[in-house]
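Bumping with the actual sequence this time:
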Amino acid sequence: MGLFRSQEAEVAREDAAVRHSLWADAFGTLATRAVQIIAVLIVTIGVIYVFLSLSLVTLPVLLALIFASAMLPVVAFLRRHKVPSVLATLICLFAVLIILGLVAWLIVWAVENQASSLADSATSGFNKLQDWITTLPFSISDQQIDDVRNAAVDFVTSSQFGSGALAGASAVGSFATGLVLMIVVLFFFLKDGPAIWEFLLRPFKGENYARARRIGDKTVTTLGGYVRGTATVAAVDAIGIGVGLWIVGVPLALPLAVIVFLTAFIPLVGATAAGILAALVALVALGPVQALIVVGIVVVVNQLEGNFLQPVLMGRTLQLHGLVILVALTAGTILGGVVGAVIAVPLMAVAWGITQVWNGEHQPAEMFRQKRPEEVR
């Protein structure tokens, strides 16, 4: 009996050794890593699915966190000067609302004052454009232009356009709901943000607690620096292009400058897209020469931004390669549209920043440490 048991034990040890050898070689390691990657992808897809399914809640909370991170230095400054927390929060919120209301009023005022002249300029410019098209090397007949115009009119008067308008009205309602929720959440983040974070860290202790604190601090620093830096760059873009449009005489220069400011929050392509829009307005309202001048102004401002402002204002915050920014921008656009394009890059910057403080203030995670001189030959 003892001999039989010893033989069974020996067979079990051999089977265990075989199984261990199967997972210990190169293919076994590859299989283990593949299973781990699949598990991480499943969890990531689940998180993204939940985020998109509850976007009416999750998106306002995320935007409130981003805005709170940007406004935190102002609130902290007021608190250091003995201003009560609630009053400091209300001052920041009302200041932002007043600025946004003033900008909206200026846009409405500009549109009302220039609407009639813009319509006349647009009609004249369209006729000039139509005459210029006839001088091109390839032929575009008046009938083809009229067909395009009639197709656009038919679309606007069609039932498909009406259903799209109803969907737009529903989207406006959802936007208003999300905006109210974001303002409320932003108020509490500004007022009680540190206390809320400490409450969420209650399950952690020791090194895990210290790591969670580093992650929270890095997230707030990265988001705040990104928003403040991007807002500064966007303001310079808007002022430069807006002044150029005003000098050239392009109608609605102020609304176009505001559009430049807003689209500048989309890296790489935002300001360029707004510049193209401004050039099209100049083309229709004034003519091709003025449109080319506007294109030149946009190119000069973008070069100033890319070669000077971006490295100086955001060099320490946005430590991401241009390819990473482009991939994150594309993925964010696919998943969340315009809003996804706006928040994708700061979220990627936060993820990279977290890896840089994973094991300590200046100790990145082992996987992302530089282990040898990285020389390109």
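The tokens above came from a reply further down the thread. The chain has a mean pLDDT of 76.
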